[in-house]
Amino acid sequence: MTMRCPKRVPDSFRKLLRRAGCIVLFAAALLGVGAAIAAAQQAERPRNVIIMFGDGAAAAQWELGRSSSRLLRGEPFAVTDIVFRQGTVGLLTTHPLDALVTDSAAAGSAMSTGFKVNNGAISTSPDGRPLRTLMEAAKASGKRIGLVTTATVYDATPAAFSVQAKSRRDYQTIVDRYLALEPDVLLGGGADYFLPTGKRGGRRRDGKDMIAAFAAKEYELARDTRALKAARGPRLLGLFAVEDMDFEIDRAPDRQPSTAEMAEAALRVLSQNSPNGFVLLVENENLDSAGHRNDLAALIRDLWAFDRAVQVALEFQRRAPGETLVIVTGDHETGGLSATYALRDLKSASWENIFYAGREQLAMVGRITISLDAAAVKLGSTLSAEALDRLLAQHFPGFRLDPDLREAILRQQPLERNFAYVTQSALARMVSRQTGFYWGTSGHTAAPVLVGAIGPGAELFRGYQDNTDFGKILHRLIEPR
Ligand SMILES: [Zn+2]
Predict the structure, then answer these.
(1) Residue 22: is its pLDDT beyond 80?
(2) 232 and 269 in contact (C-beta within 8 Å)?
(3) Confidence at residue 68, expressed as pLDDT on a 0 to 100 scale
(4) If you measure from the C-alpha of residue 18 to the centroid of ligand 1, how many angstroms do you get, rounded to a whole number?
(5) How remote is the CA of residue 287 from the centroid of ligand 1, in Å?
(6) Is 398 inside any structural domain?
(7) Higher pLDDT, 41 or 133
(8) Which of 17, 89, 121, 313 has a CA positioned 20 to 30 A from the CA of residue 50?
(9) 308 by DSSP, 3-state: which?
(10) Are 277 and 425 members of one domain?
(11) What backbone phi and psi angles, to 5 degrees, belong to 293?
(12) Are residues 299 and 216 in the same domain?
């Protein structure tokens, strides 16, 4: 860009003005482009970062957590009532490189590395370039690192925050890369890709026993809640299910720990011997899985379970508020969920025949005692009308299944082109019709996600940003100046 100077001004002075102008313009451009980065460099830097990650959770899910918590159990919801209300709040766009709607791999990669990738890729660019993950950066800065999830530990989100793989389905590779990275804490499900095919639940084809390989690197192993509570580290591998851990509504507390119990154990282990602090990712994947099944009752219980883990993080943060940054966010919205209204029946569309979702409807959902996945398993493959009636009477008190939905289940006929999980989505529609909580899809949507932050650096997450900005800000906060 060139500057025009008045003709009367002598040549030498014009040059000087032009040069000064260029410097001003260049500085302005730098300020514009790098404002967020510069702000991150000047911001207070946290010693510890705790990322509380609700997979599949956006504003609709958090609002359901808040309203159900208030109306069904008379308790505040820490995500909205503490983190969003007292901290800094921002919105993140979520699209990947190759679509408008993201999967967890592309969103996690963007939030971890600061770069967009295609759906399905784990922190790897479309031309195969490995992108530096947040946990790699944290480790290089001398911080301890931890990954906690209710999914398999090699699932897309924890994988994208820490290692690289061409595909999120390269499970064996992801586990191998964990062993090389050596996260100090690794908790969740997914024992299958730690064990060879010959061992119970094992699915590895290379004959390796990765549990033994982690043990050789002085990891303490926990396989149930009691072992997790007793674990003191300094390194901890916890595998509590062969595949995903259970929904909170179905969870057996002795066999599988809650999200809060895993967060507690992770903080206990990571906060010892950590002169440079730590970075911890705690993910509740069940929020996403419940969204995929349109399972309102399971979603509410896992929102509460996640919120209890957020309280654990906040309690840790309050002990030294200047040291720890707590972030609550998600990667995308799942299910196109909204509380809305419904007609009591199809006899009339008049206003007298309409009800809005409210306390009474939430209370009905609160009486459901099983996840829709567990209901589908219980129904089994025989699909008899009697078994269906028994299931409804036992686990869905007060609900009646309309003939079209009954037919859909018994014939295994999908309700729509964007509804997978036939039994689950038909039972979900039964719940929608009687409660007014409707779902638009059994997939992800393009809604932006919320990010709330408390602690040093929290201000940087304010406003409407891209999910890559989230990653860029965290790298700047973590990497040495
Ligand atoms: Zn999902």
Answers:
(1) no
(2) yes
(3) 98
(4) 54
(5) 9
(6) yes
(7) 133
(8) 121
(9) helix
(10) no
(11) -90, 0
(12) yes
287 and 422 within one domain: no
Q: Are 149 and 283 in contact (CB under 8 A)?
A: yes
Residue 34, domain member (yes or no): no
pLDDT of residue 196: 97
292 C-alpha to ligand 1 centroid (Å) = 7
Q: Tell me the CA–centroid distance for residue 30 and ligand 1, in Å.
A: 38
Please give the distance, rounded to the nearest whole angstrom, from the Cα atom of residue 415 to the centre of ligand 1: 20
Q: What is the CATH number of the domain that holds 297?
A: 3.40.720.10
Report the pLDDT value the prediction gives residue 17, as an integer from 0 to 100.
42
Task: Say yes or no: 472 and 394 in one domain.
Answer: no
- What is the distance in A from the centroid of ligand 1 to the CA of 334? 6
184/218 Cα distance (integer angstroms):
10
3-state secondary structure of 317: helix
Gap from CA of 42 to ligand 1 centroid (Å): 36
User: How many other C-beta atoms can be found within 10 angstroms of the C-beta atom of residue 430?
Assistant: 19
The token duo for 265 is 């154990």
* 199 shares its domain with 299: yes
CA of residue 478 to ligand 1 center, whole Å:
28
| Domain-embedded: residue 307 | yes
**46 C-alpha vs ligand 1 centroid, how far in Å?**
30
Is 58 part of a structural domain of the chain? yes
From the CA of 333, how far away is ligand 1's center (Å)? 8
Instruction: Please indicate, yes or no, whether residues 332 and 351 belong to a single structural domain of this protein.
Output: no
Show Cβ contacts of residue 256 under 8 Å, excluding neighbours closer than 6 positions.
Answer: 224, 225, 240, 241, 245, 246
Centre of ligand 1 from the C-alpha of residue 112, in Å: 17
Q: Are residues 410 and 323 in the same domain?
A: no
Query: What's the gap in Å between 284 CA and the centre of ligand 1?
Result: 12
Tell me the C-alpha distance between 255 and 182, whole Å.
Answer: 25
Cβ atoms of residues 281 and 148 within 8 Å:
yes
Residue 221 reports pLDDT greater than 60: yes
Distance from residue 105's CA to the centre of ligand 1 (Å): 9
Give residue-wise pLDDT tens across range 143-199: 999 999 999 999 999 999 999 999 999 999 999 999 999 999 999 999 999 999 999
Ligand 1 centroid distance, CA of 244 (Å)? 13
In sequence order, which residues have a C-beta less than 8 Å from that of residue 375 and are 6 or more positions away? 391, 395, 396, 423, 424, 427
Domain that holds residue 403: 338-439
Centre of ligand 1 to C-alpha 281, Å, is: 18
pLDDT, position 14: 47
Number of domains in the chain: 2
The rounded Å distance from CA 31 to ligand 1 centre is 37
Residues 59-94: pLDDT tens digits? 999 999 999 999 999 999 999 999 999 999 999 999
Taking only the tens place, the pLDDT of each residue in 285-331 is 999 999 999 999 999 999 999 999 999 999 999 999 999 999 999 99
